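Per reviewer request, we include the raw input and output of the structure prediction for the construct analysed in the revised manuscript.
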Amino acid sequence: MSSGMEPEIKLHFRKVGYSFFAGLIWLLVNVTAGLYFKLAIIEKNISLGNILFYIWFLASIGFLLYYFFRTWRLFFNLSGRK
């Protein structure tokens, strides 16, 4: 007799939790760097910090979307196979 949930349900909840926290951490890092340290705000002219922040922002959102795609492709059958 097994205790707890079925393995498929556990895996699904784990995917949901990891995806939620990856998105939350990504959001916190970028909001902190962009707004608190004022790297997202271009005042009089563009600085090296602004350029590096936006490069980081685009690269990190690309990696985050790649992570989401890799995590959820089998659940939503995004592999192109039926």
